[in-house]
Write a structure and sequence with these properties.
Length: 216
């Protein structure tokens, strides 16, 4: 009897050169996330203590590396240590490991702006469970950034989290959900009215601002 309550990955029929394995693990979710981040074609069934994995055998070395790293349980330890000290500088203790992956020296990395150093270490932490090639690829992306490009990227992420953007995303998602589940015509009408009222309110606010500017 198995405890495969979860599934992940792609349609198993789309996987070429199929290789299969079944093994005991308490880190199935971590493995699934790492396989996905690494771009490895796979299909998995898993539970709290066991996993059945089908993947493209061309990626055997990468898959073996991911499973081996996950099974050590070191990733959970890393996350706990980073959580205890949430200051951005706490990531800098990972700089020696980043230097090793990039085949460079710690001094070379420390010569970069502090924001870039932190970005290196955060990226390394985010992709720690992935195979070495994937980690190198993501770190190389950071290496090509200068401080202005990094700040622009951070501002873009912050803008996506702004209240206005979140509200717009909620309305768009509501519209998609309405269409998908086939709500009644009455419900769809209410949604349309809500969107129209919001648009009208924004137009009135713009008109008021323009009127105030004219009177100055």
């Amino acid at each position: 009897m198995n405890d495969f309550q979860y599934m992940g990955g792609v349609d198993i029929d789309s996987i070429e050169n199929k290789a299969k394995m079944r093994f005991a693990t308490a880190y199935a979710k971590d493995i699934v996330i790492a396989l996905d981040k690494s771009g490895i074609p796979f299909s998995a069934k898993y539970g709290d203590s066991e996993m059945m994995l089908t993947y493209d055998g061309s990626y055997r070395e990468q898959v073996d590396e991911i499973i081996r790293k996950a099974q050590t349980g070191k990733y959970e330890v890393l996350l706990r240590e980073l959580k205890v000290n949430q200051a951005p500088d706490s990531y800098l203790k990972l700089l020696p490991e980043v230097a090793e992956i990039l085949h460079t020296t710690i001094g070379t990395l420390r010569a970069r702006p502090s924001e870039i150093q932190v970005a290196f270490c955060k990226t390394y932490a985010d992709f720690w469970l992935c195979d070495t090639y994937t980690i190198q690829r993501e770190l190389d992306r950071i290496a090509t950034l200068n401080i202005e490009a990094l700040q622009a990227m951070q501002k873009s992420v912050q803008a996506e989290k702004s209240p206005e953007t979140q509200q717009k995303q909620k309305l768009e998602q509501l519209a998609r959900d309405t269409a998908r589940v086939g709500f009644s015509r009455e419900t769809q009408q209410k949604l349309t009215e809500m969107l129209q009222k919001k648009k009208h309110s924004e137009q009135e606010k713009t008109a008021q601002i323009e009127e105030i500017e004219r009177k100055k």
